[in-house]
Amino acid sequence: MKKVILFFAMAALLMSAVSCKNTNKGGVPEYKVVEAAQVDLADFPVDEEGFIVLFDGTSTKGWRGYGKEALPSRWTLEDGCLKFNGTGTGEGQTGEGGDVIFAHQFKNFTLEMEWKISKGGNSGIFYLAKEVTTKDENGNDRYEPIYISAPEYQVLDNANHPDALLGVDGNRQSASLYDMIPAVPQNQHPYGEWNKVKILVYKGTVVHFQNDEKVLEYHLWTPQWTDMLQASKFSQKDWPLAFELLNNCGGENHEGYIGLQDHGDDVWYRNIRIKLMD
């Protein structure tokens, strides 16, 4: 526990702006990509299949709030799971909650985990995320939401949440690339039951799996990726900052954080592990 506290203290001291866009070109506001101290992966166990265990069910070591130094109190350990205890009032409604990230940036990897959701629940898994700030009306830094910079693997109770009926052709349902590509086949297990996730990211190729079936594939940093963004809620016209950040997903080094979403509903995650690729 002392090591974890020391890490977060160091993170607070080492946070610094490393990238700033100042041109307002295309309506994009001034923003900063914030870098912080990262955990040492050598401090985490490697299982028999060569995966680094990011969450083993007994400790939240390495996890913190997005834009925060510590883990928000609504994220707790429960029966070997990392649980978000929902407010029932929608996304980001309390200072005790918020999205969380594992405090290390990854580039090429296979990420696996399991999740289950409450009835009518909504959450998401982010990858290649950055911590991004803009200025508020008083000139103070404020953190933009994590989904402004990161693709999202949708976590949803398809049968009971209205988002399942929105978007286009089911592209807001479970395992979809949120608001861009639907998961096909849609093989989700219902609320209260566990679903298996695998996300492969390798040199721009991204593949989503749900319950051991491949459900979609796409390619970052291509004209097709730009076209998908333009056809989504993250278009250059509607959301220029999101369009710029997602179009250059992962920044210059094409790497970023793994994140889990607070969308106001109870959700459980377990067996979170990652295998790195060159």
Give an overview of the whole structure.
With about 280 residues, this protein is mostly beta strands. The protein has one domain: Jelly Rolls (Sandwich), CATH 2.60.120. Helices cover about 10% and strands about 35% of the residues. It is built from three helices and 17 strands. It has helices at about 1-15, 225-230, 240-245, and strands spanning about 15-20, 30-35, 50-55, 65, 75-80, 80-85, 100-105, 110-115, 120-130, 130-135, 140-145, 150-155, 195-200, 205-210, 215-220, 255-260, 265-275. The strands form three sheets. Strands 3, 5, 6, 8, 13, 14, 15 and 17 form an eight-stranded antiparallel β-sheet that branches. A five-stranded antiparallel β-sheet has the order 4-7-16-9-12, with no helix packed on it.
Instruction: Tell me the fraction of residues in β-strands, as a range.
Output: 35-45%
What count of domains describes the coordinates? 1
- The structural class is mainly beta
- What's the tally of helices? 3
Largest sheet: 8 strands, antiparallel
- CATH level 4 superfamily: Exo-inulinase, domain 1
Q: Helix fraction?
A: 10-25%
- How would you describe the shape? globular
Poorly predicted regions: 1-24
Distance between the termini: 32 Å
Under the CATH scheme, which class?
A: Mainly Beta
Rg over CA atoms: 18 Å
Number of DSSP E strands: 17
Compressed to H and E, one letter per element, the order equals HEEEEEEEEEEEEEEEHHEE
Architecture per CATH nomenclature, i.e. the level-2 architecture: Sandwich
- What is the averaged pLDDT score? 91
As for the CATH topology, it is Jelly Rolls
